[in-house]
Amino acid sequence: MKILFVCLLFAAGVVIPLVGSAQNEAPKTVRFELQNKSVLFSKRTLIAYEPSQMGNSTSGLFFLPFQKKEFSFAVGTKLYFANRRQVDIVMDGRRIDTEKPFLEVSASTANQVIALP
Predict the structure, then answer these.
(1) Which of 2, 56, 68, 73 could crosslink 35 through cysteines, CB 3.0-4.6 Å?
(2) pLDDT at res. 21
(3) Phi/psi class of residue 110: alpha, beta or left (left: φ > 0; alpha: ψ in -120 to 50)?
């Protein structure tokens, strides 16, 4: 009886994992710095869409003149310095990740100092 049941499962195309489940690898994280190269302070809204996340992360940032800030994001993350219109869209629950990002994090972004736009 058991043999018949197992044969039916295989005939129906059902796959039974015999040993544990496959684990998802976490995306590689990259560190880099953003720098304000102006003599004036800068207030920015940074919106990030990480590939493994459903939503976004939003941060209000203040940069002093010539200040650098270190960031760490997963490879594939899209970063936006949002204008007022984009902030309103995100706060309304919609997405802006179809627009051109300021930066898409890649392995080559590692350890770079990137000037604010």
Answers:
(1) 68
(2) 44
(3) beta
